[in-house]
Amino acid sequence: MTAVIKGSFTGGCQCGALRYRATARRDDAHICHCRMCQKAVGGLFAAFVGVPDKSFTWTRGHPAVFMSSDTTERGFCANCGTPVFCRYVMDDYLDINIATLDDPSAVSPARQIGNESRLPYVDVLHRLPGRETTTETSAPDLARQIAASNHQHPDHDTDHWTPHPKQR
Questions:
Q1: Cα separation, 71 vs 86, whole angstroms
Q2: pLDDT tens digits, residue range 106-123?
Q3: Terminus-to-terminus CA distance in the chain, angstroms?
Q4: Rounded to whole angstroms, how far apart are CA atoms 29 and 99?
Q5: Selection from 121, 87, 82 nearest residue 101 by Cα
Q6: 0.90 cut: is pTM over it?
Q7: What whole-number distance in Å separates Cα of residue 43 and Cα of residue 138?
Q8: Closest Cα partner for 73 from 60, 62, 64?
Q9: Residues 109, 122: contact at Cβ < 8 Å?
Q10: Hey, which residues does 26 pair with through a beta bridge?
Q11: Distance (Å, rounded) from C-alpha 105 to C-alpha 138?
Q12: Is the sign of the CA dihedral 31, 96, 155, 110 positive or negative?
């Protein structure tokens, strides 16, 4: 049986049109490698933490929803496209995308599922060379330009939200 851990946390989409708060989470945070999750998040895998419905509240906005199957809905921001959650419609909880938490380091995945679709190079990603984004060498001024024109919502609740005028 999956245990529920009490504790408050917040999160939201990249632009800030969606914000949420939860007061509990399940102890089954996981990575999903299935092809449906790969496509839904546009990444090599999805990382989720289960949140009971009764402990979850949208504090700003409401997500757009795509039914990726007859049993699965996926919530995302209609403004910026951030994938925020996955839900099996028969369950009483939703799986929040860990990357949308204000502090994603607060939840560590404990298991992996969908391993039949795990990409073979995922297991060696930690061995690839890396660098900070502030040392971008292909375009020296890129990091500075991005920082100076950042339209991303901060990783905390704010009193208001106004979309950037260039949002389409």
A1: 11
A2: 999 999 999 999 999 999
A3: 44
A4: 12
A5: 82
A6: no
A7: 23
A8: 64
A9: no
A10: 4
A11: 29
A12: negative
